[in-house]
Design goal:
Layout lengths: L9 H10 L6 E2 L5 E2 L2 E2 L1 H7 L9 E2 L1 E2 L4 H13 L4 E6 L4 H4 L11 H8 L1 H4 L4 E9 L4 H5 L1 H5 L5 E8 L10 H10 L4 E4 L5 H10 L5 E3 L2 H5 L3 H7 L5 H22 L4 H10 L10 H9 L3 H13 L2
Parallel strand pairs: 1-4, 5-6, 6-7, 7-8, 8-9, 9-10
Antiparallel strand pairs: 2-3
Helix pairs in contact: 1-13, 3-5, 15-16
The structure holds flavin mononucleotide (FMN).
């Protein structure tokens, strides 16, 4: 499961794993430093005490070696032995600080961040990349650097930072990178169906894996269907979704102290991606509900149509 800041939080990952499964690795949204300090929210999300999925990989985002070391030290102290490094985030506040996709055009900074692999030999690092911020030349210029480090895997999202999450993924650039990259490679971007997933795996037989974000929120049974080798029945989907949603509602009712409207706002925010391909009218009703009771009725109605 791909990390999606604001969406794939601990409560979501835990409930997802319990109700749908099919996922071999979960990633936390990126953990960053703000004015040299950790954010409480990030720490809570990665704290092993709040996570119950079997394979959770915390992700860090850093502009240089000192930020990276501080982040890794904290996570290593919790016992994590696999850490992912974000070099893909196109969010302007990160890019302007030279983090995420903003680091890709600066090989010397990339080398600094990757030096954590030497500094922490007990940790297995992976990297999540885009093609570049403004040009795919950026990622190819990094290849020697990336090939010289033994990484657990590289996940490549074949878009540019300037595209954000829109426009087409470049199959051509991914194919070229696949041929030249010596570290195990994972594909990420726009996988929305079992047939799409299968086609990728057939086209790139040496892939280590496929990372899916929005597609899993739209069809949370997608990974389980792939693993099971057959489609889920309506009854399976309804039961799993209802349980998942109930789990989320309970988790956020406990977490959010600001009252019903705040809880409603949080729950509705998931529906930017959740079940987006299901009955449009019913989905819109969920998005527009003005009270928690309206919301629960609308969710129930939509779940009944799965
Ligand atoms: C709202 C949102 C938040 C995201 N947050 C993160 C993040 O914290 N770390 C990261 O590596 N990628 C993040 N991404 C990128 C996704 O992990 C993924 O690369 C992207 O959505 C493409 O995959 P998909 O088409 O399967 O969703 C985010 C994407 C979105 C839409």
């Amino acid at each position: 499961m791909a990390p999606l800041q604001g969406f794939t939080e601990a409560a979501v990952r835990n409930a997802f794993d319990r109700c749908f499964g099919g996922i071999s690795e979960y990633y936390t949204p990126f953990i960053r430093l703000e004015k040299g300090a950790f954010r409480n929210k990030d720490l809570k999300d990665a704290d092993p005490a709040n996570n119950c999925v079997a394979h959770l990989i915390p992700q860090i985002i850093a502009a240089d070696a000192s930020e990276a070391c501080m982040l890794v030290e904290r996570l290593a102290g919790w016992g994590y032995r696999c850490i992912d490094i974000n070099m893909s985030c196109p969010f302007p506040p990160m890019v302007h600080k030279g983090r995420g996709a903003g680091i890709l055009a600066h090989p010397e900074k990339v080398a600094q961040v990757l030096s954590v692999a030497e500094r922490f030999p007990e940790i297995r690092f992976s990297v999540k990349l885009r093609l570049g911020w403004a040009s795919s030349d950026e990622v190819f210029a990094l290849l020697d650097l990336l090939n010289a480090v033994s990484l657990r895997q590289i996940t490549l999202h074949p878009r540019l930072g300037v595209q954000q999450y829109k426009g087409i993924c470049s199959d051509e650039s991914f194919s070229r990178f696949y041929e030249l990259c010596v570290n195990p490679l994972v594909y990420n971007g726009d996988v929305r169906s079992v047939s799409g997933l299968t086609a990728l795996i057939e086209k790139y037989p040496r892939l280590k894996g496929v990372m899916i974000g929005r597609g899993l929120l739209a069809a949370p049974w997608l990974a389980a269907e792939y693993q099971d080798g057959k489609s889920w029945t309506g009854e399976q989907k309804r039961r799993a979704f209802r349980e998942f949603h109930q789990n989320l509602l309970s988790a956020y009712s406990e977490k959010i102290e600001g009252g019903e409207q705040q809880l409603l706002g949080k729950m509705k925010s998931f529906w930017e991606y959740l079940l987006v391909n299901e009955e449009r009218k019913k989905w819109k009703k969920v998005r527009k509900s003005a009270s928690l009771s309206d919301y629960c009725r609308a969710v129930d109605d939509l779940a009944a149509s799965l």
